[in-house]
Amino acid sequence: MATVPARSREVEFPFQSPPPVVRLVRSESAEHPFALTVAAAWSCYGARPASVERVLELFTGNGDAARAARRERAAALYPDLFAAGHHTTFQHAHFVFVLDGVSRLAIWSFFHHHPFYNSEQVSQRYREVTGATMVTPDLPEPLAELYRAAMERALTGYRRLVELLTPDIAARYAAIFPARARSQRSDVQQRVQTAIQRRAQEVARYVLPLATPAHLYHTINALTLLRYYALANQLDVPHEVRYVVNRMVEEVLAVDPNFLGAPGHPLDPHVLELEETLEYRALREFSEAVERSASEAFFREFDEALGPYHSRLVAHTPDAERVLADAVRTVLGRARSELDDDTAIALVLDPARNHYLGHPLYLAMHSKLMQTLNHVSFTFQKRISGAEDAQNQRHRGTLRSGPVLLAHLREEPDVIVPEDIARVPEALEEYWATIRVLWETKNRLLDAGVAPESALYLLPNAHHVRFYESGTLLTYFWKWVKRLCFDAQREIWETARQETEQVRQVLPRIGRYVAQPPCVLRDQSGLHPPCPEGERYCGVPVWRDYDPATLRERRVL
Questions:
Q1: For 404-441, how does the pLDDT look when each residue is reduced to its tens digit (9 = 90+)?
Q2: Where in the chain is the domain with CATH 3.30.1360?
Q3: CA 114 to CA 355: how far, in whole Å?
Q4: Cα dist. 367→13, 96, 328, 335 in Å?
Q5: Assigned CATH for 21-122+213-284
Q6: Residue 249 CB: number of other CB atoms within 10 A?
Q7: Of 33, 64, 408, 481, which has the most beta carbons under 10 Å away?
Q8: What do you get for the CA distance between the two ends of the chain, in Å?
């Protein structure tokens, strides 16, 4: 029998840095998740929708025997729904949290490592990282000093890279916007300097460690929070996560004490200990020490299979173009003699014929015809940086099997070298000097026997992440549109370019439509102006004489 966790499960924060701030932004659904869940369940059986107020009324005062009986039934129903797997009732309650001072490691490894959330996170392009307070595990001296020194070196490298990259970025910016670059107006000069600095910051962030704190709005439903509660002890999830999750639950309990069940009827989310988690048990079958357990043979085998790509198409729906065309014909009730394959495919993928593609609400998710794109799927094998993967995670329609980081740690630096850094020899030298300090410190901490999760904070954003990712044409189409914009970070832009290039090779009738940046899609849809970014316009009229084969040579920044 599983032990029901204590209602107030106190989790300490054994770090030298201040604990993250967790604050629930209240709404009606956040304040009454118990009553909302019960009311939703009752509504399945009632002649009319049950109200939250009706449920709350039962728990106000004592009342007569009949009322007490109804209250008892409501209290018992809540854990019964959970135990029986009727979890849709728990998805009506939503919580909006403000998280502040949470590490990039915690966000990447846990809070964004699933599709059931929405977040708005501080940008490392638009905001300079000061490093005033890095997330710092509670390490004994002299290891703590070693850790702090590595953090300082990373911040020095970051600031130095911004400085070294600025002249090259400024020159390329001037080539795109010569009038702006020559202007003597103070407001224009400020605009130019801001744009250049943001680009430099975006590239320099590759040396920042995963200990870098962030703030974000994070919205989840009640079911997801219960899953957080159960899974916070996963293998490479830092203790920081357990603290934050516990605080999230405490914030909800403060406004609804019945969130984990009414008195006498506890809900049991069965909090898994580390040894119970699937990944831990699987890795223990191969090695006593789960950290650094991946063999060099694995890395060699994985990387050789990629060939010239860092995102390689490894599988797609057989006979995908016929399947898509047949699905379109089925929606419309048309025979092949009435609607040929090319026309059927064009109906859903050609923006000149499908104006849903250019609509700002992206209506494709609600269109019967557009849903035919879900019958074509792709799988990619990927090796990208942690910096790119932090952005890649936001595309929650494409599903990934992210790695257990502890099992991917290598003795030597395993990182990407950004193109913009490789262009500037001094920047490249500073880049490697910073990376080596972080990597060597990580190795020294592990060799000293510290908790492996503490060493993960030292990994730079540049560290390689290897995984598989799958999705449908519908989800990939929108992802490619967004990431082929020249304003997209260069690495994820290059990934989208590689993926669409491969799709064009294997599925030419579908592929002719998939490599469309937003401006091209809007132009072909007849929408003006073609670029929807306003002041963020990249300066290149990509939609003019558009040819996806020339994308790489046309991008300047």
A1: 998 899 999 999 999 999 999 999 999 999 999 999 99
A2: 21-122+213-284
A3: 31
A4: 48, 29, 12, 21
A5: 3.30.1360
A6: 24
A7: 33
A8: 59
